[in-house]
Amino acid sequence: MLNIKTIKNSLISDESKDGFCFRSSCSQNLSQKKLAAEMADWNSSFTEADYLGMLSVMEKIVVKYLSKGYNVELPFGSLPFSFSTPFGIHFFLFLGYNLCETWGDFMKKILIFGHKNPDTDSIVSSTALEFLKKKMGFEHYSACRAGHLNPQTDYIYKKFGISTPLFIPDLLPKVEYFMHKGAITTGENESIWNAVSKMRDKKVNVLPVVDKSGLYKGLISSDLIFKSIFDNFDPMHHLSLFTSAKLLKETLKASFLSKHNPDSQREFKIILASTSFSSFSNTLKSHLSQPIIVVTGDREDIQLFCLENKVDILIITGSRTPGPKVIELAKKIGTTIILSPLNTSSTSMLIMYSVPVFKVANTSLKALHAKDLLTNVKKEILSSPLRLLPVVDDESKVIGIMSEIDLHNEPDLEIALVDHNELSQAVDGIENYTITEIIDHHRIGPAPTKSPITFINMPLGSTSTIISKLFIENKIEIPVKIASLLLSGILSDTLILKSATTTQTDVEIAKILGKITGLEIQSFGEEIIKAGSRIKDRTALQIIAQDLKEYTEAGETFTVSQIEVDGTQEILRRKEEFIAQLEEQKKERKALFSALLVTDISNLNSLMLVAGEKKFMDFLHFPKVEEQIFFLKDVVSRKKQLIPIIGELIGEFENY
């Protein structure tokens, strides 16, 4: 298995070969196969097949990158790629360091899931595989779980002080998997000029509006800003403006010569001192009953007259600093003087953009939540004015934008499965995502995939054994905590190496992990088995659900749960409770039957409690302990012993 970090380093480490990689031999018609051959010749660390496989993967990444309209940064410049550019142009030549170093940012997240009612092997395999992948350079893998920890698994994670996989109860299509992440926001008290600048710099026409705590308050768009400016220039509007001295200063990139309540936001009358003194004085006197902003040049008579009439804000244009008399008087009477570097015309235009964002924003648009189901938000998005809406998290902080286009995008994540491969046992909603990898030790029954995937299936006692082998094969050291988890998974799934599923490989790997951890196999195994056999303070539903698997044979659905106990007395004492819950399970899933396999670790035999259709119950010929309870001598493995027998029985039953 290739290590991405090694590949990246090998591909970008040698610039001496004619500039960058294969410049002299590359052409727009260079095929991936030809390129792979040249790469293998240039760097023999990997074979032509290795490079060809990597190019195929990278093509998908590059196409996604280019389709978003990005320019590609080069060590020697920048080239805009068109979407139609053949990949044979040789992305190593044209993409340079920038993409090679950041390509992980454009790869989809891969969530690692065990089965939806996870046992210890399922959970620890997810954690260990994430660690292994990241050590190999795959930072986009994350361990997850679809169900709650059973008592044994909970005990193990707490004992070793390890964080459990992220709990994701289902994978129904949600906004967070399709939205455009990392939305640029604007503060509600920022000027619309600042918002316009962000739109221009980031090449967007919409910004979510947030308060000083980062909480969502509304949405501002270029259309709303245009409407605001248009309204302010309307002759019937008489040039009134809601702003503050601080916003005016920031918008104009000006400076204060005197200031008074610079943060105070209110509605001002704007008067331009562009007429004769007589005309200006008449205009000013007619509006003295309201807050006033006067824009003027270096006319001291106008400036002093404004101060005598105690205008609120005096903007002097062209960086023409007034005399000391004007500044001193302004400070004395509480008038703010702003010195603008722009001429009068530009200043009078630009102050229209000093309005705070919240006065222009649409505050009636409700944000979507990241966890909202796609089916529930489609109508809201399509009916919104801009056919898009901001997305917030649990704290109402903006984390993205969801648009009409995003509704048709592929999700930004893919799935890896451990310890199962049948979709009936997988997290709900998995059919909406691409499965990229499966590591398992059970029978094979997966749904068809759209493209080839990595599928490791081995007849071993646990998935933890397989993942331990992957560490060893890739020469990656197993840390003590990870080794402790993997040893737990092996001992739990093989009943301390006594189950019929146990192989010599399981025994050998367990010994290796025991040496790494310093744990004595037998005593540690007994410790974790005991932790999982507690039933006194747990309901029948909790026990049946903790390790339940659903199967399909000959078109019939059935479920089998399993629990290991040190003696079956407590189960038999509560048999009515367990059988009643199995009846509920059967009805809920419309199953042929539901069963609970109770494995006694003291004698390595099992009882099976069954709730099923009467005809099928009559067909069962296991030794009966009492009604709906059967004795299974030497049967301890659901996977290797019970399920094959059940499969044959159902086949016979269907033909009965």
UniProtKB/TrEMBL annotation:
<dbReference type="InterPro" id="IPR001667">
    <property type="entry name" value="DDH_dom"/>
</dbReference>
<comment type="subunit">
    <text>Homohexamer.</text>
</comment>
<dbReference type="Pfam" id="PF07085">
    <property type="entry name" value="DRTGG"/>
</dbReference>
<dbReference type="InterPro" id="IPR000644">
    <property type="entry name" value="CBS_dom"/>
</dbReference>
<feature type="coiled-coil region">
    <location>
        <begin position="565"/>
        <end position="595"/>
    </location>
</feature>
<dbReference type="InterPro" id="IPR010766">
    <property type="entry name" value="DRTGG"/>
</dbReference>
<dbReference type="InterPro" id="IPR028979">
    <property type="entry name" value="Ser_kin/Pase_Hpr-like_N_sf"/>
</dbReference>
<dbReference type="InterPro" id="IPR038763">
    <property type="entry name" value="DHH_sf"/>
</dbReference>
<keyword id="KW-0129">CBS domain</keyword>
<dbReference type="Pfam" id="PF01368">
    <property type="entry name" value="DHH"/>
</dbReference>
<keyword id="KW-0175">Coiled coil</keyword>
<dbReference type="Pfam" id="PF02833">
    <property type="entry name" value="DHHA2"/>
</dbReference>
<feature type="domain" description="CBS">
    <location>
        <begin position="179"/>
        <end position="236"/>
    </location>
</feature>
<keyword id="KW-0378">Hydrolase</keyword>
<dbReference type="GO" id="GO:0004427">
    <property type="term" value="F:inorganic diphosphate phosphatase activity"/>
</dbReference>
<dbReference type="InterPro" id="IPR038222">
    <property type="entry name" value="DHHA2_dom_sf"/>
</dbReference>
<keyword id="KW-0479">Metal-binding</keyword>
<dbReference type="InterPro" id="IPR004097">
    <property type="entry name" value="DHHA2"/>
</dbReference>
<dbReference type="GO" id="GO:0005737">
    <property type="term" value="C:cytoplasm"/>
</dbReference>
<dbReference type="GO" id="GO:0046872">
    <property type="term" value="F:metal ion binding"/>
</dbReference>
<keyword id="KW-0464">Manganese</keyword>
<dbReference type="InterPro" id="IPR046342">
    <property type="entry name" value="CBS_dom_sf"/>
</dbReference>
<protein>
    <recommendedName>
        <fullName>inorganic diphosphatase</fullName>
        <ecNumber>3.6.1.1</ecNumber>
    </recommendedName>
</protein>
<dbReference type="Pfam" id="PF00571">
    <property type="entry name" value="CBS"/>
</dbReference>
